[in-house]
């Protein structure tokens, strides 16, 4: 029952479509009608409102942080489950016919709540990848790929071992990769747009 409630907590916390709510509240229409059709911060940024995009990033990350912290308190041992389902809820929200965002900000929030040193290392990798490739999707996919590896390898750099979170972080990696399917196709074909470049 604790596993079930942790999963339910994560899924419904993650399912709140902040990107859509914020853009509609600001009178910018339905964010799903522009760009990639996603409700995430990258697509919100395409409205031209950087403030809303930043707010979306923070709120989407909070959707990962809050259920994990609550599950840590109420359902100890199942906080990883709450995190996985928070990402699932964001990517497949029931309020939008099981469509949603691509999961990276929520995944970052989950990682930060489960093991903040791993999140910081993954953030450094994300920033370095952005600087080298100037491609948001490549940076996101690289960071989520390193997170489960870092959870096991952390003791090699003097950090505590977070191996208990390897499987939840691996599951989140798979979800994010699935949601980036079209991006991966464009990356392989050399057609993925770069930051600041033309669409």
Calculate the terminal CA-CA distance, rounded to whole Å: 47 Å
The coarse overall form would be: globular
Largest sheet: none
Query: Which structural class is indicated by helix and strand composition?
Result: mainly alpha
What would you note in describing this structure?
By secondary structure, this protein is mainly α. The chain has one domain. The protein is built from 10 helices and no strands. It has helices spanning 2-14, 18-25, 41-45, 50-74, 79-91, 104-114, 116-133, 136-153, 166-179, 181-189. Helix 2 packs antiparallel against helix 4 and helix 8 runs antiparallel to helix 9 (166-179). The longest helix has 25 residues, at 50-74. The chain is globular and about 40 Å long. It starts with a helix and ends in a 10-residue tail after the last helix. The mean pLDDT is 91.
Any key phrases for this structure?
mainly alpha; 10 helices; single chain; 67% helix; 199 residues
What's the helix and strand layout?
Layout lengths: L1 H13 L3 H8 L15 H5 L4 H25 L4 H13 L12 H11 L1 H18 L2 H18 L12 H14 L1 H9 L10
Helix pairs in contact: 1-4, 1-5, 2-4, 4-5, 4-6, 5-6, 5-9, 6-7, 6-8, 7-8, 8-9
Q: Short summary of the structure?
A:
The protein has 199 residues and is mainly alpha-helical. It contains 10 helices and no strands.
């Amino acid at each position: 029952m604790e596993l079930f409630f942790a999963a339910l907590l994560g899924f419904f916390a993650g399912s709140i479509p902040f990107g859509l709510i914020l853009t509609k509240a600001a009178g910018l229409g339905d964010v799903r009608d522009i760009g990639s059709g996603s409700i995430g911060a990258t697509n919100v940024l395409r409205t031209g409102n950087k403030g809303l995009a930043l707010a979306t990033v923070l709120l989407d990350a909070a959707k990962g942080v809050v259920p994990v912290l609550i599950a840590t308190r109420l359902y100890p041992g199942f906080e990883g489950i709450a995190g996985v389902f928070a990402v699932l809820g964001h990517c497949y929200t029931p309020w939008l016919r099981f469509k949603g965002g691509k999961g990276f900000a929520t995944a970052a929030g989950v990682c930060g709540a489960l093991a903040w040193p791993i999140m910081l290392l993954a953030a450094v990798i994300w920033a370095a990848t952005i600087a080298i490739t100037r491609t948001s999707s490549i940076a996101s996919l690289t960071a989520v790929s390193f997170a489960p590896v870092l959870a096991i390898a952390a003791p090699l750099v003097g950090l505590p071992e977070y191996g208990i979170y390897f499987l939840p972080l691996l599951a989140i990696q798979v979800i994010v990769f699935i949601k980036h399917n079209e991006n991966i196709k464009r990356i392989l074909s050399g057609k993925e747009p770069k930051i600041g470049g033309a669409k």
